[in-house]
Amino acid sequence: MNPAMNPAMNPVVNPVVKELYFDEVEVGARGVSPPRTVTEADIDTFADLTGDHTPVHTDEAYARTTPFGTRVAHGLLGLSLADGLKSRSDLRFVPGMSLGWTWDFTGPIKINDTVQVRFHVASARLSRSRAGWGILVLPAEMRNQHGEVVQRGEHRLMIPCRPGFAPAAAGDAP
């Protein structure tokens, strides 16, 4: 087992939260992630992993000369954290396929900022191309410890319906 997913080693993972199939999801449902502090090591590791060693992320002396005044996390590190935090929230879905993100970087994420993601189900529809699957649209915001929105956007996620789920035909509705 991955140590990060072991509840004994990672207290923010709550194995009691039920993962929902598409047909169990309600439009309007809301999720809140656990908080996560972004460290200097996170930024350095992301720079090494991606090869993006832009000085505003990796060189404190240089970063002090920028409008940020200090090193900041890569925007895509924030998006990656948002996806991971969403999957550890109090609203979880059975694993599916990400169809894409529309995402804006609205403010800096600085070393030792603590971020949290809030999202909701804006819409849900059955897939037209894959029977037994549905598509969710999930607007989300990432806020720092000061309540400032540092990133926001929308995730389109396709997840399966429960095995044996049969949607009602249009003529079956009352």
TrEMBL record:
<protein>
    <recommendedName>
        <fullName>MaoC-like domain-containing protein</fullName>
    </recommendedName>
</protein>
<dbReference type="Pfam" id="PF01575">
    <property type="entry name" value="MaoC_dehydratas"/>
</dbReference>
<dbReference type="InterPro" id="IPR029069">
    <property type="entry name" value="HotDog_dom_sf"/>
</dbReference>
<feature type="domain" description="MaoC-like">
    <location>
        <begin position="33"/>
        <end position="125"/>
    </location>
</feature>
<dbReference type="InterPro" id="IPR052342">
    <property type="entry name" value="MCH/BMMD"/>
</dbReference>
<dbReference type="InterPro" id="IPR002539">
    <property type="entry name" value="MaoC-like_dom"/>
</dbReference>
